[in-house]
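Ribonucleoside-diphosphate reductase, Fructilactobacillus hinvesii. C-alpha cells?
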Amino acid sequence: MSLKDHTDASYFTLNNEINIPTKDGRIQLDKDQEALAAFLKENVEPNLVQFNSLQERFDYLIKHDYVEEAFLKQYPLTFIEKLYDYLNSQDFHFHSFMAAYKFYAQYALKTDDGNQYLERYIDRTAMNALYLANGDQELALALADELIHQRFQPATPTFLNAGKKRRGEFVSCFLIQSTDDMNSIGRTINSALQLSKIGGGVGINLNNLRAAGDPIKHIEGAASGVKPVMKLLEDSFSYSNQLGQRQGAGVVYLSVFHPDIIDFLAVKKENADEKIRVNTLSLGVTVPDKFYELAAQNRDMALFSPYDVEQEYGVPFSYVDITKEYDNLVQNDRIKKKYIKARDLETEIGKLQQESGYPYIINVDTANRDNPIDGKIIMSNLCSEIMQVQTPSIINDEQEYEQLGTDVSCNLGSTNVVNLMHSPDFGKSIESMVRALTFVTDISHINTVPSIRHGNELSHSIGLGAMGLHSYFALHHMYYGSPESIEFTGVYFMLLNYWSLVASNQLARERGKTFHNFEKSKYADGSYFDKYTEQDWGPTSEKVKELFKDTFIPSRADWEELKLAVMKDGLYHQNRLAVAPNGSTSYIGDATASLAPIVSRIEERQEAKIGTIFYPAPYLSNDTIKYYESAYDIDMRKEIDIYAEAQKHVDQSLSMTMFMRSTIPAGMYEWKDERDEKMSTRDLTILRNYAHHKGIKSIYYVRTFTDNNDTIGANECESCVI
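C-alpha cells:
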C-alpha cells in the first residue's frame, strides 16, 4: 500500500470501531491497538526507506539535501552509533494509533515526492538530540534519554525541523507592537507579512493607535481608528500563507479603556456587516484591575484618547498604568474621553465569548504585579501564554529605526507530567530541557523583524511548560480540581521553577553573561525568592507526599542557597516558564493537552482528506475511566483553581481555555436555578471575575458545547500550539 493511499487500509476501520460499543456497553479499546499494529504493518513498514548502516543513511540524506551536514560533523560516527544503540535499546513503542498516525503524517521526514518515509520516531529523536546539543556529547545523550522516554517534547517547529536541510524556523510565535504613526503601522504590517511567511502566529498590540475621530495634524475627526488597520492585517495574513500550505494566523490586542473598544469587539459579531467583519483575525483585550473595580461598583468608565494620553505622559498609551492613573486621567481636561457603563462592556465581552469564543482576556495588572523583570508587560501572543516586557521602537520617515525597541519570539517546549514523574533525576531532566531550548534561543535570528531579533538577543527567553496533567490525575485516582490534584499541581510547578532557575543560573555562570537588565530585576535584589524562603511549598497531604516520595523537594534552606547563587552570578534567561495549549505533540506523547481537562473520553478528531479519527484518552481503562470527567461537565472554578496553583510558580502565563455548555448541568453553579439553565453572560462574568481574583493572568478561548453537539470557539490556532 502506498504511503498516500488509504483506500484498502484496515487501520481506519479498526480505529472507527472504538466508537462502537459492544452489546454490554464496553468501549473497544483493544481496537485502537489493532489499528496501531495495522498502520505500522500496512503503511509504515512497506514505505520506510531502509539503509544497511548509519553511515549509508547519513551519506544518502546529506547527498540529497535532506539533512544538514555541519551539525553531524560535530560528532564522530562512533558516538552517533552509540546514541542510536541507546535509543534502540529503550524499545520505544507508540501507545496509540493517533500517536503513530500524527507522527508519520506530520513530523517524519519523507522523500521529495512524498511517497516514502525517511525516518522513524527514533530517527527524529536522534536528530533533535544531536542538533539541540550542538556538539555536546553528554547533553546529546541526556536529551536522547528525555526524548525517547517522552519526558520532554520540543515545540512543533523545533521537533519538526531539527537537523533538516530544507526547513522552517524553530520558533513558534511572535509578539509585536505598533506605535501611533504611519511609519510604525507600515512596519507592523510588513512584520506581520514576514513573520507569517516563516510560519509563526503573530500577536499585535494596537493599543497605542489613536482612536476613530482623534485629530491628525490638528484636524479633528480625521483618524479612522483601529478597524482599518485590523482589516489590513487580516489581508496580510491571508496573503502570507506559506505558499498556501496554511492560513496565516494573528491576534490583535486592545485595552478595554481604548475608545474603539466597542467597535473592536463588534467586528466578530455574527450580525456584523461584511464591510467591517474580521473573519480570521483573533481578538484579545487587555484588562487592568480598574475595569473590574468599576464594573463591580456599577459605575461609568472613561475611555481615554491614546493620542492625548501620549501627549500628556510622553509614552505610548500601553505604557501608562491605567489603574494607578485613572483618576488623574479623568480629571485632566486636556485628555479627551468618553463614557460607557462598565457593566455594559462586561456584558458585550460575555456576548461575544458566547458567540465566537473571543476575546482572549489578558489581566495586565496581574501580569505586571507578578513580573520580576524591569519593564512593562503590555500584551500576549496568539495562544495567551507568553508575557514578556517590551519596549517601543521609533521609526523615521526613511523607515529606519531611530530607536530599536524589543519585541518577542516564543521558544517553547513541554514536560510530560506522567513521564517526568518517573524520571530518575527530575533536576537533570529539567536542566537538559532548558539547555535544549536555550540553543533554540541562541540560534534564532529573525533578521526581517529587527525588534524581534533585538528582544531575543537581550532576553534569551524560553518557555518550558507541561502537558498530560489530567492523565496523571486519572492514573493516580484524583478527580480534576480535587484538593489533592491542586496540591500536586503546585508542587510540580514549584519544582519546574526551582530546577529551571538552577539551570539558568548555571548557564549564566558558565557563560559569564546574564539577560539584559538583570541587575534591575527582583532576582538580582533577592526579593523574588522571599515567598520560597518564608514558607514551605512541599507536599502536605499523605496522598501527594506519596507521589513525590522519590523526588527531591527543595527546603527553605535550598531556596536560600539558590537565592544567593542567583544574586551572585545571575540568570541567563529573562523568562523561563510558560504553558502553551499543546496541539498535535500531545497526541504523539499520548498525553492530555496542557493542564486542561479532557473534552471527551473518546475524542473525535477530524483529519483533512481522511475523515474522523477516534482517540481514547491516554491510559483510559476501567481503572481510570471515572476520573476522566469531560471539561464540559466540570465546574470551571476547579479548572481555574488548578491553573492558579500553577501560575504561582510560572513567570509568564498559562493558556487556559474555559469549557461551557450552552445548557448548564443542574447543580454545577450555585447561582443558577431551574429557570435559568441556559448559559448567560452573567455566568461568564462571574467566572472571569473569579479567575481574576485567583491570580489568573490570561483566559484563552471560551469553548461552548451547544445543545445540538456543535462547538463554538474551537481552538483553531495551528502555529502556536506545541
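Residues 175-403 form a domain with the Anaerobic Ribonucleotide-triphosphate Reductase Large Chain fold (CATH 3.20.70.20).
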